[in-house]
Amino acid sequence: MIQSVNESRPFSFLTLRATDYSDRKSGMKSIVVANWKMNPGTMREAKKLFDATREAAESAKHVSVIVAPPAIFLRELRARYKGKRLGFAIQQASAEGSGAYTGDISLPQAKDAGAQYVIVGHSERRAKGESNEDAGKVVAAALESDMTPILCVGEKARSHEGEHFNVVKEQLRTGFSGVEPGKISKVLVAYEPVWAIGGEKAMSPRDMHEMAIFIRKTIIELHGEKGMGVRIIYGGAATESNAAEMLRDGDVIGLLVGHVSINEARFAALLQALENAR
Ligand code: 13P
Question: 47: part of which helix (H) or strand (E)?
C-alpha cells in the first residue's frame, strides 16, 4: 500500500533537520539530468530535441543540465555540441571492460562516445533483472574510468512498517560497496520511488527530505563521515510545477527527469522554474 512516510515514522532520527547540509549546498549549481529513456524514434528528432534542450539550458545558467539520450544517438549529439555547459550521460553500461557480451556497452565505449556520466541501476533496468550487485560493480567501474555514476535507488511501494527504508538501505549498501570514502562525493544518488515514475505527482518534498536524511545517515554508517558529502537528486514525476519546491524543501541538489525531458516546452519551463527560484 502506498502511503506517506509521515504517517509511520519508525526512525527517530528522521525528525532531525539537515540544516548544515542545506547551508553548504546553497552555493552549488543545481543538476538536472534529462533521461530520454528509449526516445525519440529517429536521429533527426533527437537532434531537434537536443537543440531545444541546449537552448533551454542556455537560459538557465545556474542549472547544470546532463542529457542522457539513447546510446545510439550519443556520439552524434556530443559532436554537434561545442559548448561546455551541457553534460552527457549513458543510460546504462556494463562493468566489464570488453569481451563477449552481446548487446552491452562498456564504460570506455560510452566515454569515447562523449559520456561523462552513467546512470546505474535505474528501476527500469532492475525490472529486467539487474541486481544491486550489478549496480555496485558499475558504480566502482565508473569511478575507475573517471566517470560519474548516477546510482538510482528507490522502493516499488511504501509500507506502514517502513520496509521501503530497508530496500533503499540495501541498494545503497551494495551500490557503494566498491566506493572508497574519498570518492563518495563523486557519486550522485538519484532517489526515484518507483511508484511515482511516469506520473505527474511527485513525492512530497517533506518526504524527500526525510529520505535524504536517511540516505546520508546510511552512507555515513557504512563509510564514515565523508558520507555527509553525498550528492542526492530526486526523480519520479519531476515536472515544471514541482521542481522548484522539491529543490527548496526536499534537501536535494537536483532532479532526474523522464517524460518531461522529452517535451521541449515543459522541459524549458522546468529549467526556468529552477532558475527563477534562485
Ligand atoms: P518520469 O520523470 O517520467 O517520472 O521518469 C522518472 C525517471 O525514471 C527518470 O529516470
Answer: helix 43-58
pLDDT tens digits, one per residue of 98-156: 999 999 999 999 999 999 999 999 999 999 999 999 999 999 999 999 999 999 999 99
Cα distance between residue 256 and residue 237, in whole Å? 9
Q: Distance, CA 12 to ligand 1 centroid (Å)?
A: 30
Cα-based distances in Å from 150 to 68, 76, 188, 216: 11, 22, 5, 15
Ligand 1 site residues, Cβ closer than 6 angstroms: 35, 122, 192, 197-198, 235-238, 256-260
270: part of which helix (H) or strand (E)?
helix 264-276
Does the active-site annotation cover 62? no
Cα 100 to middle of ligand 1, angstroms: 31
| Ligand 1 mean position, distance from CA 146 (Å) | 26
Would you give the distance in Å from CA 260 to the centre of its chain? 15
**Sign of torsion over alpha carbons 59, 36, 43, 78:** positive
| Out of 11-15, 214-218, 253-257, least confident range | 11-15
- From atom 7 of ligand 1, which residue's Cα is the shortest distance away? 258
At the top level of CATH, the class of 11-276 is alpha beta
